[in-house]
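Duplicate of #3305? Posting structure anyway:
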């Protein structure tokens, strides 16, 4: 008993604490609060459907409508209900990509997060494949001849790796670039303050506050707008669309070119 108590007391929390997972939990908490706010605001519209939606409920209705249109455009009318998964996936991904603007680490810079999301999509793809093709599903792994079984088993994991590495690569590249920019601006600020100190004499750089913030505004808003907002939105849209396309292709014989042509003609 004493040994177990000592292990609990000596537990090193820092060794297992992952800041990106903490950020992910904060995002989930924020989304739960927003969902609760939408639910509360929707009650009066349920009682009186003739009222015009306003505020956060109106935004939620527009978002769901756009998600349903996108889902139907890619997966067809019979899969309209799949938008119930696409909406929370899209919202979480976008919040996760832009969360770095708060100063806390983005969950997408921790490979476990995009890998988990891609694993969910991967499982959904193969569940749909089994549901559609039944036992014929396993035939794909021995085509064109059974000797290709090891190769087909390896390529089976390609979508999981490509989708997860795409999101992680874009997130970590933006994070590394912004870190380099802030590091350079911090050093430039220090050199500037030292130059002012040498000219004026007796000048205290600390009096201006954190030295690294003096020039931190130079060019960084534009870079954040691209790497966090624009790139985050594009990656969110791409991942959501790839999820729908891959699952839909397991339901139908339609190839990628035919799907793109069908979507363009709508």
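Output from current build:
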């Amino acid at each position: 008993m004493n040994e177990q108590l000592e292990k609990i007391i000596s537990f090193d929390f820092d060794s297992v604490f992952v800041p990106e997972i903490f950020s992910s939990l904060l995002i989930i908490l924020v989304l739960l609060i927003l969902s609760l706010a939408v639910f509360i605001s929707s009650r009066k519209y349920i009682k009186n459907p003739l009222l015009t939606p306003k505020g956060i409920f109106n935004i939620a209705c527009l978002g769901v409508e756009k998600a349903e249109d996108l889902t139907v455009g890619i997966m067809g009318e019979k899969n309209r209900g799949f938008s119930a998964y696409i909406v929370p996936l899209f919202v979480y991904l976008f919040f996760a990509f832009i969360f770095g603007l708060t100063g806390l680490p983005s969950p997408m810079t921790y490979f476990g997060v995009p890998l988990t999301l891609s694993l969910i999509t991967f499982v959904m793809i193969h569940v749909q494949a089994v549901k559609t093709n039944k036992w014929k599903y396993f035939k794909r792994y021995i085509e064109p001849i059974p000797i290709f079984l090891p190769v087909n088993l390896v390529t089976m994991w390609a979508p999981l790796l490509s989708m997860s590495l795409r999101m992680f690569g874009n997130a970590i590249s933006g994070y590394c670039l912004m870190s380099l920019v802030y590091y350079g601006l911090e050093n430039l600020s220090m050199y500037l303050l030292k130059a002012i100190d040498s000219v004026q004499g007796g000048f205290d750089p600390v009096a201006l506050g954190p030295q690294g913030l003096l020039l931190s505004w130079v060019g960084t808003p534009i870079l954040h707008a691209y790497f966090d907002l624009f790139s985050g939105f594009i990656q969110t849209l791409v991942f959501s669309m790839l999820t729908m396309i891959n699952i839909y292709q397991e339901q139908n014989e339609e190839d990628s070119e035919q799907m793109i042509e069908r979507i363009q003609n709508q």
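Confirmed duplicate; merging threads. The chain is about 70% helix and 0% strand. Confidence is low (pLDDT under 50) at residues 7-11.
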